[in-house]
## 1
Amino acid sequence: MIFDSWGGVLADGAFQAFSLAYTARVLAQLKRQGADGQPVPRIVFTKGGGLWLREMAALDCEVLGLDWTVNLGAARALVGGQVGSSAGGASANPGKALQGNIDPNVLFAGPEQIKTAAQGVLDSFGTPFQAPKNDPDATGPTHIFNLGHGISQHTPPENVAVLVEMVHAYSRQQRK
């Protein structure tokens, strides 16, 4: 994961020159397979980078991390790809998986506010893509639930547990 906590404070033009260009350079030098021969997904996160999401979509990575300032549904429409299939020669555009984007400060709220915020993030992305049983090679937009930035050392662990339990329960419900 390339984690750029300061890219979003750059001006337009400076972001492309000093964050995007170097991120692309690092990605080009990363190994694409692990020691076991399996593909290693590459994730790029730029705090405050939502302004340049369209440009970041061209990066040679599989996942774009988003902070809490980005509307997840809009990001899905912009860079999340289309539902497609690689079977039968169809041209699939899987786009980028998206990771994030709940505000980590929500973890200082009460359990009900945490649950509401988590549900809001999951609802914003929309129905998760599931490959049909008759087309296991089908691809589509994917979301990896995560914080929109780092967690504070003062975060109550019990609040993290509330978040994890809510995400698991609600994600299962969405997939039914």
## 2
Amino acid sequence: MIIQSLEQKTRLALTTVLVAVCSSVIICCFTMWKCFSFISEERSQIYVIDGDIPFLAERTKMETTFLVEAKAHIQLFHHYFFNLPPDNNYIEWAMGKAMYMADATALRQKKALEESGFLSDLVSSSAVATLVCDSISFDERQKRFTYYGTQLIKRKSNTKRRSLVTSGMLESVPRSHNNPHGLMITNWRTVENNDLNH
């Protein structure tokens, strides 16, 4: 009778220990899983500090901002390529910035402008060329764009207004200091560049 009672007590103690150990393992695993998921969630959040106060900023994927970044890239490229004062150093700097944002088709157009004497004429006549963006049509599926703008060439004697239409395609490239949008303009060409009536 005493042996049987001792056996039951041993079995009960063993069961209690096993249940306690299993429960501890389950609780530990659940706690670790929650901690890792919490850390992962925190790493995906960005905080911006204004003075001593942190503000939570949202991180977005490129797909959600692609249209905005594509149009900004196209507009910035045209700004560098066509907004030119009568300053050789600035023209070289701006054209250099534009060349980081497009493929060899932009370099061909730059050489054509140099060969036609347009760039040297700007400097010699103290003319200022500016470009105003009218609109940008962009097909997200094909990544094809058409840029519509009005070019103003201001000389001391007169101001010439020209309509400018260019087209090309975009492809994704790694982001860099010189290409912050991570996009490259390809197959770029001037479709129209005609004088406008005053």
## 3
Amino acid sequence: MPPVRQPRQILQGFSLIEVLVAMMILSIGVIGALKLQLSSMQATREASLADTATHLAFELADRVHGNHDRLSQARANPFLSINFQANEDTLDTSHACFSDNCTPGQSANADVAEWLNKISTQLPNARATVCLDDTPWNQPSRGFTWDCTTTGVRPSMMIKIGWQTSADNLAGPGPRIAIAVTPDPD
């Protein structure tokens, strides 16, 4: 009797091609998830910087209001002289004034110096301008402008702040935050 042949066993498994295709599909999914995570982290950082800039702008507005009575007697308003760019300006911290005998100008200069120190340490490549401005918004570019234009009878004091983002090479095309400081009622 001839030898009995046993049926061939069907081997089940994956071929090398199937494994490579599966690994490629998995790696595309992982790369997509990493990109999503990175963009989420960047958006969180930008929101944090915008929150910091807004806080700093309102802090300066409070300092302007706090010095209003004393500045109305002064000849020049030191707050309106703020035109700061982090890479170009050096901070002058010699304006400390902690006594009641400070002149209005000395007190305001101390506030300006302290505020500029904060903005330069808390915002990357910060830029700040405080000026009288009637038209801070540029409609064609749909953004704030660094230029200060006074065309009206009573322009608003504007605090404009910008900073460098991960997408910018410089401190951005225009201010990212701009708030008007309303005068105290007389």
## 4
Amino acid sequence: MENQQIRQNMDRRPLRPRLGRERLYCDGGSGTILQAMGLAGGELPETWNLKHPDRIISLARGYFEAGCDIVNANTFGANALKYPDNLKEIVQAGVQLAMEGRRQAGREDAYVALDIGPTGRLLAPMGDLPFDRAVELFSEVVRYGAEAGADLVLIETMSDSYEAKAAVLAAKENCDLPVLITMIFDERGKLLTGGSIESAAAMLEGLGVDAMGINCGLGPKQM
């Protein structure tokens, strides 16, 4: 088993040298697919890592078979605020199920991303979540995901530059994996907390992320 894992890792080229030099295809709207599979309104998607692992494997396998180079683990909303009792189990299952989907698809050249979304709380002073606590929350997820074998950290759907900073610092301080991040802006090109595309890009570059972008706060045309 150990020799097989070594061989599989050799099949996978380092990600950082490929960024900005090749087109790499990511997965798509996993939430809508999970809903089609039976995810109920208000049901937390990450619970399916334990309740319906076969469906999560199928979701990942489908994306790998379609040609995706990067597929997210089902961990977008996983943090200790939502899962105070079984966060490690939820996160590590999400990563391992995506890895199993990759194995079944025969795509050992592709990457599994630890997917990290917002905490769901506004950071102080606009909200009640202290910055240091946000870093702690993200750090837990990063440690569990890296331990489970994730190839990179994808921080996504961030609408607050302060929270994005907390997530990036957590990733940088708790693993040596590539860190990718996407932000969401309104039709004026502003974050929820007022930052511009230019200011967000400057901050993220300063923090040393490996790639940055925009994701689905708006439709394709507006983006």
